[in-house]
User: Fold this.
Amino acid sequence: MAWIPTIPPSEATGPLKEIYDAAVRRAGKVYGILRLMSLNPEVLRASMGLYLSAVRGPSPLPRAVRETLAVVVSATNRCHY
Assistant:
């Protein structure tokens, strides 16, 4: 649970709702890491753009390797997502 206020998917409107809806289409739900940026949809949009470019964009590394690296870094940093 976040210690900062967030906007739950059921209360999202406008650009935030669009971002949340895309997240549900992509991942089946809106993860907490996205909700943490819900008070600033532009920051959330930019963050998702960076993530999607890094993980799904053109790269000499296969997507599975990039996602594995992300998991290792998160585990090393003791992130629970």
